[in-house]
């Protein structure tokens, strides 16, 4: 049975995610002025040692999937396949190779990944 506090906390987390994603979209639109088509903010996640590997991986994947870059790439694209590989990585070593590929795609597509 879920308490009213748990329901409220879940609603707050959902609203914070929505506001954060809206902020990312605004920054992405502004980023086009400095030569980058998109920006993806991983600050606070990438090097956060308070999070375990799986938590960092999951949040990085969530932010990538929430990006306009990812959405515009379309289902079945190479970008979607690489993000799937990141999602399936079970260790930092397994994460590294697809991350390098993703970074190459980001450079080609003029995506600034802030870490």
Give an overview in words.
This protein has 115 residues and is mainly alpha-helical. The chain has one domain (4-114). It is 66% helix and 7% strand. It has a two-stranded parallel sheet. The protein is globular. The protein starts with a helix and ends with a strand. 15% of the residues are buried.
Entry summary:
By secondary structure, the protein is mainly α. It has helices at 4-31, 53-66, 68-73, 78-88, 92-108; strands at residues 38-41, 111-114.
Low-pLDDT ranges: none
- Class per helix and strand makeup: mainly alpha
Total individual domains: 1
Largest sheet: 2 strands, parallel
Number of strands: 2
Q: What is the general shape?
A: globular
The level of helicity is 55-70%
Considering the chains and any ligands shown, give keywords for the structure.
mainly alpha, 115 residues, two-stranded parallel sheet, 5 helices
Present the secondary structure layout.
Blueprint: H1 4-31, E1 38-41, H2 53-66, H3 68-73, H4 78-88, H5 92-108, E2 111-114
Parallel strand pairs: 1-2
Helix pairs in contact: 2-4, 4-5
